[in-house]
Amino acid sequence: MTRMKLCSVSFIFSVIAIQVLHLSTIVNGQQVMDSCNSTLPLEDLALDSSLFQCVEVWSDQNYILRYAKTVENTWSFILSTPDSNAYIAIGFSTNGRMVGSSAIVGWITSDGESGDAKQYLLGGMSPGDVIPDQGDLKIVNGSLMIESVSSRLYMSFQLTAELPREKLLYAMGPAGFFPSSPEFRLREHQFVTTTTINYNTGSATIGPAMSPGSAMTGAAQSPSSPAPSLSSAYGLSPSLLFFVLSLVALKFY
């Protein structure tokens, strides 16, 4: 009988270990990560990737911005984000607020069959005030594009400017929604954050995440965080969680 109990307990330990490892793999494997130390997986880059400055502009969502001055008064940008089945956006603002700024928004549909990127004028707080194909960014013809590589989106473009606006905003749209022809209207984004970039030195000040409404006025809220794993939700490491569950199993056997 004792041997049977030990076998039962060992079996339970094995099941628990497999489940914990499986959950950890799911949580950690949901997104393909990028960093400023990663090599850009893009083909046909017009500029040597080593010349780009790089900033991790939104660590919670793993948004990475690379930029470089390519020729006189021409700047190249590449925004890298996880493919979250939603549109992504980068806005250039004079005062850190969304209203009055111009943004570049891009998306690739969940089936991967269509995608687009456009400039939008953020003229007000209602959907009708966000106007596609308008804005004051001088985008170099043919430079605006978006592509998906290994479950990440890479939106690239070039701007003609002596110095681009330093106050930048980043947003992620609602999952499963994509602007469509003929109006290409946007729905309100889920998350937004800001940075202030010094293009001359390459330094950046990372702002807090904001709610959609507060982004219009510049008021901040606590940064959004990814969903916790099974162990972190209880403040436990995976090994400690396994030990606790094992003790529970022993109690009942």
UniProtKB/TrEMBL annotation:
CDD domains: DOMON_DOH (cd09631). Residues 61-173 form the DOMON domain. PROSITE patterns: DOMON. SMART domains: DoH. It is found in: Membrane. GO terms for cellular component: membrane. It comes from the Eukaryota. The keyword Electron transport applies. Residues 1-29 form the signal peptide. The keyword Electron transport applies. Keywords: Electron transport, Membrane, Signal, Transport. PANTHER family: CYTOCHROME B561 AND DOMON DOMAIN-CONTAINING PROTEIN, DOMON DOMAIN-CONTAINING PROTEIN. This is DOMON domain-containing protein.
